[in-house]
């Protein structure tokens, strides 16, 4: 019998020691959307360039074998209005993208970038009994939202591979997941420099460029660099209210705040205190004068260029 692709389950748990499996359980399940992209053997194949007196192709060697996983989750908070400090199910993945987590009891959970002591995660995908692991995994996250659709966090993860084997999925009841809310006037507000904007699309790239090292003395995933950027597509506000073009020409920075969700337990707030905006050409959005903004997301004082808060 063929394997059933619909029986796809992904677990993720923060590692105490990099590369050591903390054995994720059903409570560590990640609720993905779309189709995860799991490559259980990513590698560089090379020729040995043998001169053996025979024509034809030669067997290649497998260099730097590892595994990759691309997956998306809904941008949603913990979902418990009685416990606003509930950690969202995607937290372990974000922590492995160069973030740290701060829980304020009964109030909120904050995620901010770090420049050292990067966390790692064990990711355990299983497709109808086709079982594998990514150990010591790290990666990058991109947040995307569009009017009328549920915003997502797209993760691209790399990790040490574990041999593919046949193993039953972890059993038990899945944890409760918050339902994602579509971007719209009721659930979403976006301000630039304190002024509310009419926004049709937004994206934030957390700017990590993970790479896999396999060399003498070290084998693992690096995410040393961080260059955050973003993009917003909006209806041009009245010049007297907000002159975005001239603000871009002045090359200053200002705060951008994205708040998604209107009720306790459903709110995700993204705060960027020092963003330089770069304007593009005017566009026609169904008869409305619109414009894209590219965002240069810079730190204000240390590792604070973005704070993602769930509450």
UniProtKB/TrEMBL annotation:
<dbReference type="InterPro" id="IPR044000">
    <property type="entry name" value="Phage_tube_2"/>
</dbReference>
<protein>
    <recommendedName>
        <fullName>Phage tail protein</fullName>
    </recommendedName>
</protein>
<dbReference type="Pfam" id="PF18906">
    <property type="entry name" value="Phage_tube_2"/>
</dbReference>
């Amino acid at each position: 019998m063929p394997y059933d692709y619909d029986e796809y389950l992904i677990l993720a748990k923060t590692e105490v020691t990099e590369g050591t499996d903390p054995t994720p359980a059903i409570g560590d399940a990640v609720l993905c959307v779309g189709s995860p992209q799991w490559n259980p053997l990513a590698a560089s194949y090379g020729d040995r360039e043998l001169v053996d007196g025979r024509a034809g192709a030669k067997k290649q060697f497998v260099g730097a074998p590892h595994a990759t996983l691309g997956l998306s989750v809904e941008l949603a908070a913990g979902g418990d209005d009685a416990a606003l400090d509930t950690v969202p199910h995607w937290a372990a993945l974000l922590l492995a993208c160069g973030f740290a987590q701060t829980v304020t009891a009964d109030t909120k959970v904050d995620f901010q970038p770090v420049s050292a002591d990067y966390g790692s995660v064990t990711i355990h995908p299983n497709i109808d009994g086709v079982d594998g692991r990514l150990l010591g995994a790290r990666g990058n996250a991109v947040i995307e939202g569009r009017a009328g659709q549920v915003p997502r966090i797209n993760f691209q993860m790399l990790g040490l591979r574990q041999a593919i084997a046949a193993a039953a999925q972890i059993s038990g009841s899945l944890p409760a997941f918050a339902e994602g809310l579509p971007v719209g006037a009721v659930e979403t507000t976006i301000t630039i420099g304190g002024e509310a904007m009419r926004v049709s699309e937004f994206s934030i790239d957390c700017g990590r460029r993970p790479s896999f090292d396999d060399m003498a003395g070290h084998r693992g995933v690096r995410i040393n660099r961080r260059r955050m950027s973003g993009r917003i597509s909006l209806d041009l506000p009245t010049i007297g209210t907000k002159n975005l073009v001239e603000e871009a020409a002045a090359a200053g920075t200002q705060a951008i705040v994205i708040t998604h969700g209107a009720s306790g337990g459903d709110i995700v707030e993204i705060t960027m205190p020092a963003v330089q905006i770069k304007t593009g050409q005017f566009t026609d959005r169904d008869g409305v004068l619109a414009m894209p903004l590219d965002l240069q997301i810079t730190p204000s004082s240390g590792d604070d260029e973005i704070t993602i808060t769930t509450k």
